[in-house]
Amino acid sequence: MESEEKQQNYIHQKRPSRPPGWIPPNKRPQKPKPRYVRPEFSFDTIHGLPLKEVECYVPSKSERHAARQEFDGRFSEDGKVMLKEGVRAKFLKHLAEKHSAALKENLGLTDEQIAQMAERGRAPAGFNVHHKLPLHIGGKNEFSNLILIPLYPHDQLHHDVLDRQVDNMKEGERRTILLPTCDDMVYDPKKYGFYKDNQKVEANYTSKVKVENYSKNYLPEHIAEIRAKQEPDPEKKIVPLFKTLQNMSTAAKTAALYPERAAAVPPPPQAMQKRLSDKARD
């Protein structure tokens, strides 16, 4: 019985004829799909940046390239020497000079980090200068269009909100989008989160950004922890020795730095002490 079934498998059978007018699936007319449908968000504010309707457009490739060069500036091949200062560097130096209080309070930056910003024009590790209206959809290199922000909320703005609205735009195309924007130039961790009519809500999408890949520097508790680590332990105050020892003699420095060594050295003989005191008077 089994052998008969196997034989049946090898018998050629003609396929049933197709009905008149049959068209292969790949040649059938496709229903036109809308090229763009603006996503609906469950919030009207993300991380302190309200969503505003803005018309954007994609400039030519040469315009986008020129804007990016203007922002980045020009560096040596190894990236260590700035040959031409870009808008990013100018913006960071401006923040260091005019907004140091906000950099400390909001971002937990130290005086040393702010001084490096002022000198080198580079963002501290874990932060990025964000274009509120990105360059590739017509944004300008103006300070009012820039904000210094931690990397995690920065990438959320791009990958979860902006990319979903502008990813398939072509050169010269115009579109009205919901743009997260504000007047601030320094991110405020107290405003982190999603809000609708001033009430905290949950985002209505699955984020493309994995939080475990980022520094913890974007919530108020993160900043409080960062600042606590910067404050010296009152039980272990470190006195800068070079200031204390600056005007001390060699013997006094030795006694201050190595008291056990100074105690082990016997005092000079009485005659030597007299000669030393006479020399000091001379």
Task: Give the percentage of residues in beta strands.
Answer: 5-15%
Walk across the major sheet and give the strand order: 7-2-1-8-9
How many E-type strands? 9
Tally of DSSP helical segments? 11
List the helices and strands and how they pair.
Layout: H1 2-9, E1 45-46, E2 49-57, H2 61-72, E3 74-75, E4 82-84, H3 87-98, H4 100-107, H5 111-120, E5 127-131, E6 146-150, H6 151-166, E7 174-180, E8 194-196, E9 199-201, H7 220-230, H8 241-245, H9 250-257, H10 259-264, H11 270-281
Antiparallel strand pairs: 1-2, 1-8, 2-7, 3-4, 5-6, 8-9
Helix pairs in contact: 3-5
Short description:
By secondary structure, this protein is of the alpha+beta class. It has two domains: 45-231, no CATH class; 232-264, no CATH class. It is built from eleven helices and nine strands.
Explain what the structure shows:
This protein has helices at 2-9, 61-72, 87-98, 100-107, 111-120, 151-166, 220-230, 241-245, 250-257, 259-264, 270-281, and strands spanning 45-46, 49-57, 74-75, 82-84, 127-131, 146-150, 174-180, 194-196, 199-201. The protein is of the alpha+beta class and 282 residues long. The protein folds into two domains: 45-231, no CATH class; 232-264, no CATH class. The strands form three sheets. The chain has a five-stranded antiparallel β-sheet with strand order 7-2-1-8-9. It has a two-stranded antiparallel ribbon with strand order 3-4. It is elongated, with a radius of gyration of 34 Å. The model has no long low-confidence stretch (mean pLDDT 86).
